[in-house]
Amino acid sequence: MKLTVDTPDGMVVTLGATEVAAGARMFSGKVARQRPVLVNGIPGHMSWRSDGTPLSVITSTIAEGRITGIHIVVDPAKLASIQLPAPA
Q1: pLDDT over 90 at 37, yes or no
Q2: For 45, 57, 71, 80, which has the most beta carbons within 10 A of its beta carbon?
Q3: 61 in helix, strand or coil?
Q4: Pairing mode, if any, of strands 2-7 and 66-73?
Q5: pTM for this predicted structure
Q6: Across-strand partners of 66?
Q7: Does the pLDDT value for residue 29 go beyond 80?
């Protein structure tokens, strides 16, 4: 399992299922609204803060029925450059 996170400070890569799961928990408390979206034609998930600003976009890579990779964008500059839907 590979987790790639685009942050304002650069890209952070985490390897290993246990490590990826621990990293995913750190984002869960900041989400106010969320919904499934298409990101460049790929199913993903969009989250917003309580003030309506984008928090993250998440997509997954699936191989042989298993998630093998997760890509999260939390960099506000990158989020601003993506055509994003309004909060749900």
Answers
A1: no
A2: 57
A3: strand
A4: parallel
A5: 0.81
A6: 63
A7: no
